Amino acid sequence: MSDTPLLRESCYIDGKWVKADGGGTIAVTDPATGARIGAVPDMGEAETRRAIEAAHAAMPGWVALTAKERATILRRLHDLMMTHQEELARLLTREQGKSLAEARGEIAYAASFIEWFAEEGRRVYGDVIPSHAADKRIVVLKQPVGVVAAITPWNFPSAMITRKIAPALAAGCAVVLKPASETPFSALALAALAEEAGLPAGLFNVITGGSRAIGGELTGSPLVRKLSFTGSTEVGRLLLGQCAPTIKKASMELGGNAPFIVFDDADVDAAVEGALASKYRNSGQTCVCTNRFYVQAGVHDAFVAKLAERSRALKVGNGFDDGTQIGPLINPAAVEKVEQHVADATAKGAVVLAGGHRHKLGGSFFEPTVLSGVTQDMLIAREETFGPVAGVIRFETEADAIALANDSEFGLAAYFYARDLGRVWRVAEALETGIVGINTGLISTEVAPFGGVKQSGIGREGSRYGIEDYLETKYLCMGL
Ligand SMILES: NC(=O)c1ccc[n+]([C@@H]2O[C@H](COP(=O)([O-])OP(=O)(O)OC[C@H]3O[C@@H](n4cnc5c(N)ncnc54)[C@H](O)[C@@H]3O)[C@@H](O)[C@H]2O)c1
Ligand SMILES: O=C[C@H](O)CS(=O)(=O)O
């Protein structure tokens, strides 16, 4: 990794590259090989407090710029990301494991949020409201919410960060980011490019270390006015509670349990393509990966046979190897969870049609797996598997499918394949999720509002809606 100029083994606070006060570090390993690829500072409360204070001090100068001046710097950051796309992608694959092709795609996706919100920041409009009284005038302003704390997951080490810092910076906010300890280098590389783009010191701070200590400071500080979190529902619930004493604004992008419904009137071949895309992206480690398949009786056997055949043909390997489609899971614990879901399902009667075991490569590799005969009571239908396992449940009627799909505390993404127009509208409106993919398995884009309902989260990221969460609305009542 020493040949990677963007590799930073220090944190970035107030425009300086610094080590932890106590000198402690956290090792970072390659999930494909288990090899140590570097280390980052093990920071705590004191460093976090300094980062928050730096962000708070830097904001006024940033707010004083025009939206266009902020957009110019963000645009420069976008261009630098794309210039360094290959290096950023290699860094990302090394620490997260996804294929190089997917990593290149993630860097472009991450950069697209910077490009999108550079422009959205120039369209933060207020209002002039017809007054209620002849001697009054009413104006509405939109102003930056204040210092933003961002905490992000390991599965998209670049895009989950820019999906937060882009609207925050475009709105005029400063950010303190804690990335996942498994994948810190992509975050630190972003800080290096932001520095090169001319982002003033203190506006983007990246700290690594103990999540409880750092998180406690970020959620407890009165200087932090907003928490933007992406991660598991369990941790989101904890952090939301920690924000309560200081009444922080909170955006929560949490866990999923996406249903994928195939109706009798679907194009089965198209449904299989969509299923492969939605299930096996990032080796099944995305919040919007299909977690449970529901297939109507008339097409069930044809669909599962084709899905199993295609799953068996997927290439499992190191993300750097040509043609790899399924990389390693992030760590051994992730493999154990996948194994637990497969074992629970087969113990309750599910049938393995493809895969079902740890891959012969060993380590954190798992075979792409298809199970039929799955039922709603199995762990694989109740919990987020976060691995390359497709469990298929047969259903009879449209009403059954909707009831089964909505039988979850999660509500992030759902997918279905159908060609009857009336059915498309009935099902799309009935599904209790924030996102619905219709005759497609891929829904991720910066231009659309991304987020969930129920215990999958609060708020939306991306699109023209995404900047609203970083703004406050101020009402001016002007007496004449
Ligand atoms: N909805 C979305 O947009 C979205 C996107 C990606 C991932 N996710 C979800 O994230 C999960 C996988 O990511 P993960 O394993 O990194 O999730 P996680 O919740 O374990 O960790 C997420 C982040 O929170 C930090 N963290 C953990 N405990 C903390 C604490 N007590 N205080 C402060 N910070 C803490 C982690 O270090 C990491 O940076 C899955 O559930 C997935 O569905 C959701
Ligand atoms: O893991 C969930 C992320 O949000 C992935 S994506 O935004 O759907 O690409």
TrEMBL record:
<dbReference type="GO" id="GO:0005829">
    <property type="term" value="C:cytosol"/>
</dbReference>
<dbReference type="InterPro" id="IPR015590">
    <property type="entry name" value="Aldehyde_DH_dom"/>
</dbReference>
<dbReference type="GO" id="GO:0009450">
    <property type="term" value="P:gamma-aminobutyric acid catabolic process"/>
</dbReference>
<dbReference type="InterPro" id="IPR016163">
    <property type="entry name" value="Ald_DH_C"/>
</dbReference>
<dbReference type="InterPro" id="IPR016162">
    <property type="entry name" value="Ald_DH_N"/>
</dbReference>
<dbReference type="InterPro" id="IPR050740">
    <property type="entry name" value="Aldehyde_DH_Superfamily"/>
</dbReference>
<dbReference type="InterPro" id="IPR010102">
    <property type="entry name" value="Succ_semiAld_DH"/>
</dbReference>
<protein>
    <submittedName>
        <fullName>Succinate-semialdehyde dehydrogenase (NADP(+))</fullName>
    </submittedName>
</protein>
<dbReference type="InterPro" id="IPR029510">
    <property type="entry name" value="Ald_DH_CS_GLU"/>
</dbReference>
<keyword id="KW-0560">Oxidoreductase</keyword>
<dbReference type="InterPro" id="IPR016160">
    <property type="entry name" value="Ald_DH_CS_CYS"/>
</dbReference>
<feature type="domain" description="Aldehyde dehydrogenase">
    <location>
        <begin position="17"/>
        <end position="475"/>
    </location>
</feature>
<dbReference type="GO" id="GO:0004777">
    <property type="term" value="F:succinate-semialdehyde dehydrogenase (NAD+) activity"/>
</dbReference>
<feature type="active site">
    <location>
        <position position="253"/>
    </location>
</feature>
<keyword id="KW-0558">Oxidation</keyword>
<comment type="similarity">
    <text>Belongs to the aldehyde dehydrogenase family.</text>
</comment>
<dbReference type="Pfam" id="PF00171">
    <property type="entry name" value="Aldedh"/>
</dbReference>
<dbReference type="InterPro" id="IPR016161">
    <property type="entry name" value="Ald_DH/histidinol_DH"/>
</dbReference>
